């Protein structure tokens, strides 16, 4: 009760601070700027916040907080546009939304999917804030209860969602997840600094691949290429079936799912070090497991949108706990946020334990500013969703060149290397073939996202556990099998058993027809080849760096084992068995008027052009040629669209102070921005 | 699309009003220009905080009040950005580059990826920080100003990596004869403190701001016992008590009180060299090597003006810590102390990293 005696007045003061017209004005300004930046895939909160930083110095704390929180809060909301409409996962918060949101857009239900997503986001944000208001007072000991074994188990729980998303053949899903983990280990190891599948001669690889590139390559590029080949609009028949009101109704009909997923979001968000990477997958898995008729998942089930979207805004609230109470950022944008808070006013707010003692009013202001920003942002998004959804009715050939432009720019921003574009292309190829042969792409992505946490927590927990065991057997057991760990193990086992039973019903790629043996087997051999190479590569790391080699060796060995069983099955089964699923045999891709390679060549030409003359000049040539030759547009239309595209690109990059990839030309000749590079 | 483009245009218009790019001029007058301060780390690190703190102050102090934009170029632990800066030529004085301990250490350790040479660049400003090591209460009770009673204890420490700033604490503890096992792979010292708070680690250290912001509360609650600071440098290059923590003994004092720990010889010299590079001269701002003297002087004057601000001590204390800022020739001197490490000291560290942690820089 003593707690409430201090909490209630602080809550009152917080509201008095928030409800000043000027504070609300700054909040709305932040939200509008956040929406403008957030619809741009791959940039999100980090770019937006860095833009605000120069203005934070000495600013009135509450105004600065309102501006920054307005901006951060709407990113997980606004990136939904890209994931639902274009199948582009804008950030880690919207990966799971793509799975069902984009198929809904293809069915002409974009507005419905968007408004269901936004209603869920809004609700999740509010549930999160309410929960947090009480929870934050007791959060410190709970956060401290999550040691390394506990975090490892939460990561494993996230990984167990592979079982749900494995597809018709569990082995293919497991191998895809294994491949994802292996791709995630590329580069310098965190623990001992050994190189895995990389060399100092190719510095790009030593940093590893970025999530943005893998997300775009695995989900966005295959869809863009496939739609472009079919030469139609995203929404089949170019018609919008249902409007935004239906989405709100859908959400309301599933309000309990939304509540549960919101709470999952806050609770997982609170655990430092995991960030948002697992939340939406756990929420998606939960949505699948609690739905009676699972047959629509992956092909446009609205519950698959409501689940993850409810959790991802709630997670932002939960993420405030480690950020504010411990000064440990849960995400990149939170890290900048911490830095910016120190610049505010005269620097009197210092994130850390004192946020509860001396600055409880500021803490509550932050929590509720976040909730309020969600409300404002969501209302704006819902209002816009009906109109923006019309994008899905445009002939795709007119959208595609601009999507190529956007994803290239987004990929380049992750590392500012030309190699970013190459990596996008290569990962895109993997994505295209995973999709073609019905290997689970979500499983691959979950593997990639959780690769680093799995390895890190395993190694660290193992090291500390062996330290404890040296002190005494009992102490070791107490450390490894804490009550939280045991509960998490039970949940994981239940979810794997249920998931494997249900996975066969969920066909993320639709009912893919089977074809001849040859192509699927060649792909299997390619995967096995890579895994074998990675296994040998890891085994060559000297033994003293055991922490750097153990996980890659175990995982690649396991994935290879899965592949071997698959190979035996493939040899034994007759042609036409579902194991030989191949999209090029029958269905949309097979009937498409354009071939895979000629379509991919367009994208390749943009990358090759960039290599020689830099991004903007290459883009200019690419847009003009594409619109004239492929889309058959008139010169007038071509020039107007090209000008719009390039103008838009320069405007965004100019404002965000970003460069474009330079080419060989820029190496020899100094050109003014935007033609020149870094 | 038109809707969203329109809304972006409005936002862009608002921001553009704050002033972005403009034509160049030949005088050392930066009116209407944009100065790019390139930081070879991500937006989220300590160097970002440092650049964002000094950026607006520099903008006010430079003639013509140019916009100072902090630009991030992360990659390969700052080696990528530093290699890039090595190839930059002076254009109009609108390029500034910031380095940190993580840029200096690979240079000192002859990391094969280093293609940059500090001696080619012109330092205009240098600033530093301090560090404090602390123990859990149980082991802290055995600490009597010397580490003699700590030599039998097994310690666990959450570390960012053996070749990072953690060289300084790890080597210090080794010199004291303590048995400290690092758990590698954590991201940032905040995670290390959390590991300590959870009881998984029983020894930790923080840089000054991290100690004040997080660990001091633990000390006040009796959950941690301060052990030693790394110290600070006086004008003659001697290690003295850290002015921010005058009540905590330095490692030098603890070393002197501990049996078997020497404050001379190659081990001590190696430790001191990496300490200086990692703490008191941790962050430096550079201009390209061929920058004309008048531009260098302009920057020196501007940084002097920043440091001379009446409120500088107050505003810097909370944001970057209360430590001296070296400007102009002092910055040059600071750089010299930071990079002049004897071959023996380097060889000692390289050998120690290989023997104790299996780290080889090939």
Q: Any key phrases for this structure?
A:
heterodimer, A: 678 residues, mainly alpha, two-stranded antiparallel sheet, 73% helix, 1% strand, globular, B: 362 residues, alpha/beta, six-stranded mixed sheet, three-stranded antiparallel sheet, 14 helices, 13 strands, disordered N terminus
Short description:
Chain A is an all-alpha fold and 678 residues long. Chain A has helices at 2-18, 21-38, 44-56, 61-86, 95-106, 110-145, 148-165, 170-184, 203-206, 211-230, 244-253, 255-270, 279-289, 303-326, 332-343, 354-357, 360-388, 396-415, 419-436, 441-471, 473-480, 483-503, 518-539, 546-572, 588-591, 596-613, 615-630, 635-655, 664-668; strands at 187-188, 195-196.
Most extensive contact: A-B, 76 and 73 residues
Strand content of chain A: under 5%
Q: Describe the main β-sheet of chain B briefly.
A: 6 strands, mixed
Q: Count of DSSP helices of chain B?
A: 14
Class derived from helix and strand content of chain B: alpha/beta
The helix-and-strand class of chain A reads: mainly alpha
Helix proportion of residues of chain A, in percent? over 70%
**What is the first-to-last residue Cα distance of chain A?**
58 Å
Order of helices and strands of chain B: HEHEHEHEEHEHEHEHEEEHHEHHEHH
Strand content range of chain B: 15-25%
Backbone shape of chain A: globular
User: Which quaternary structure do these chains form?
Assistant: heterodimer
- Cα end-to-end separation of chain B: 52 Å
**Rounded mean pLDDT score of chain A:** 86
Biggest beta sheet summary of chain A: 2 strands, antiparallel
Instruction: Provide mean pLDDT of chain B, rounded.
Output: 85
- Extract low-pLDDT stretches of chain B: 1-26
Helix fraction of chain B, binned, reads 40-55%
Rg over CA atoms of chain A: 25 Å
What is the gyration radius of chain B calculated from CA atoms? 22 Å
């Amino acid at each position: 009760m003593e707690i409430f005696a201090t909490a209630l007045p602080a809550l009152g003061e917080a509201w008095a601070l928030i409800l000043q017209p000027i504070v609300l004005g700054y909040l709305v300004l932040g939200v509008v700027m956040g929406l403008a930046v957030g619809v741009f895939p791959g940039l999100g909160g980090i770019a937006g916040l860095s833009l605000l930083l120069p203005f934070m110095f000495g600013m009135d704390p509450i105004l600065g907080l309102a501006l920054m929180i307005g901006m951060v809060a709407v990113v997980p909301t606004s990136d939904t546009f890209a994931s639902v409409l274009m199948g582009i996962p804008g950030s880690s918060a919207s990966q799971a939304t793509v799975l069902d949101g984009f198929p809904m857009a293809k069915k002409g239900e974009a507005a419905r999917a968007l408004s269901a997503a936004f209603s869920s986001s809004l609700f999740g944000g509010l549930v999160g804030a309410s929960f947090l208001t009480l929870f934050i007072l007791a959060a410190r000991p709970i956060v401290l209860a999550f040691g390394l074994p506990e975090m490892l188990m939460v990561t494993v729980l996230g990984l167990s969602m592979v079982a749900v998303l494995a597809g018709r053949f569990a082995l293919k899903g497991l191998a895809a997840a294994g491949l994802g983990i292996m791709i995630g280990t590329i580069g310098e190891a965190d623990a001992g600094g050994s190189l895995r599948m990389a060399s100092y001669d190719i510095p790009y690889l030593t940093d590893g691949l970025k999530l943005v590139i893998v997300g775009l390559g695995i989900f966005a590029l295959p869809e863009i290429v496939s739609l472009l080949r079919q030469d139609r609009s995203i929404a089949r028949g170019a018609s919008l079936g249902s409007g935004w009101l239906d989405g709100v109704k859908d959400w309301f009909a599933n309000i309990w799912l939304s509540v549960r997923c919101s709470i999952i979001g806050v609770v997982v968000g609170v655990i430092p070090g995991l960030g948002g990477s697992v939340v939406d997958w756990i929420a998606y898995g939960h949505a699948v497991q609690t739905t009676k008729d699972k047959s629509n998942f992956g092909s446009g089930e609205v519950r698959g949108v409501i689940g993850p979207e409810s959790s991802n805004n709630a997670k932002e609230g939960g993420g405030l706990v480690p950020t504010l109470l411990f000064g440990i950022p849960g995400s990149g944008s939170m890290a900048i946020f911490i830095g910016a808070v120190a610049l505010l006013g005269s620097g009197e707010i210092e994130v850390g334990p004192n946020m509860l003692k001396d600055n409880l009013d500021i803490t509550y202001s932050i929590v509720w500013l976040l909730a309020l920003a969600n409300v404002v942002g969501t209302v704006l998004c819902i209002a816009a969703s009906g109109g923006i959804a019309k994008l899905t009715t445009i002939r795709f050939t007119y959208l595609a060149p601009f999507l190529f432009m956007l994803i290239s720019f987004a990929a380049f921003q992750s590392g500012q290397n030309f190699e970013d574009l190459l990596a996008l292309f290569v990962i895109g190829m993997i994505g295209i073939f995973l999709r073609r042969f019905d290997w689970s792409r979500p499983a691959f992505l979950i593997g990639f996202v959780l690769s680093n946490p799995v390895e890190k927590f395993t190694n660290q927990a193992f090291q500390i556990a062996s330290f404890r065991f040296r002190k005494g057997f009992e102490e070791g057991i107490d450390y490894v099998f804490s009550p939280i760990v045991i509960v998490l193990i039970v949940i994981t086992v239940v979810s794997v058993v249920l998931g494997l039973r249900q996975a066969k019903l969920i066909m993320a790629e639709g009912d893919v027809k089977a074809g001849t043996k040859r192509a699927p087997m060649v792909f299997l051999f390619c995967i096995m080849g890579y895994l074998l190479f990675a296994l040998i590569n890891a085994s060559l790391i000297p033994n003293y760096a055991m922490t750097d080699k153990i996980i890659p060796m175990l995982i690649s060995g396991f994935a290879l084992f899965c592949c071997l069983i698959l190979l035996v099955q493939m040899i034994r089964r007759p042609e036409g068995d579902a194991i030989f699923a191949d999209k090029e045999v029958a269905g949309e891709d097979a009937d498409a008027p354009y071939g895979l390679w000629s379509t991919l060549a367009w994208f390749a030409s943009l990358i090759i052009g960039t290599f020689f003359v830099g991004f903007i000049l290459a883009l200019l040539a690419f847009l003009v040629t594409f619109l004239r030759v492929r889309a058959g547009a008139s010169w007038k239309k071509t020039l107007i669209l090209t000008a719009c595209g390039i103008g838009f690109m320069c405007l965004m990059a100019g404002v965000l102070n970003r460069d474009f990839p330079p080419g060989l030309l820029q190496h020899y000749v100094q050109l003014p921005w935007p033609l020149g590079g870094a | 699309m038109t809707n969203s483009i329109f809304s972006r245009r409005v936002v862009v218009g608002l921001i553009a009003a704050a002033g972005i790019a403009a034509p160049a001029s030949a005088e050392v007058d930066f009116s209407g220009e944009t100065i790019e301060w390139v930081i070879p780390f991500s937006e989220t690190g300590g160097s970002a905080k440092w650049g964002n703190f000094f950026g607006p102050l520099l903008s006010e102090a430079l003639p013509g009040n140019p916009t100072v934009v902090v630009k991030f170029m992360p990659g390969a632990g700052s080696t990528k950005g530093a290699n890039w800066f090595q190839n930059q030529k002076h254009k109009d004085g609108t390029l500034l580059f910031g380095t940190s301990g993580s840029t200096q250490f690979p240079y000192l350790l002859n990391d094969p990826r280093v293609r940059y040479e500090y001696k080619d660049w012109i330092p205009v400003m240098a600033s530093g920080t301090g560090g404090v090591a602390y123990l859990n209460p149980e082991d802290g009770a055995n600490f009597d100003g010397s580490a003699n009673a700590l030599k039998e204890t097994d310690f666990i420490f959450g570390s960012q990596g053996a070749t990072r700033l953690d060289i300084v604490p790890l080597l210090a503890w080794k010199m004291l004869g303590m048995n400290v096992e690092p758990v590698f792979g954590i991201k940032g010292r905040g995670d290390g403190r959390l590991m300590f708070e959870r009881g998984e680690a029983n020894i930790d250290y923080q840089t000054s701001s991290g100690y004040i912001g997080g660990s001091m509360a633990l000390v006040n609650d009796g959950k941690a016992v301060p052990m030693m600071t790394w110290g600070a440098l006086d004008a003659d290059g001697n290690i003295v008590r850290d002015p921010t923590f005058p009540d905590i003994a330095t490692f030098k004092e603890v070393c002197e009180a501990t049996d078997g720990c020497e404050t001379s010889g190659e081990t001590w010299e190696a430790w001191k060299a990496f300490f200086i590079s990692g703490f008191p001269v941790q962050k430096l701002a550079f201009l390209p090597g061929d920058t004309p003297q008048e531009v260098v002087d302009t920057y020196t004057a501007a940084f002097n003006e920043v440091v001379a601000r009446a409120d500088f001590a107050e505003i810097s204390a909370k944001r970057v810590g209360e430590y001296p800022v070296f400007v102009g020739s002092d910055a040059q001197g600071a750089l010299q102390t930071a990079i002049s490490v004897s071959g023996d000291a380097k060889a000692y560290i390289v050998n120690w990293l290989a023997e104790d942690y299996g780290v080889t820089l090939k």
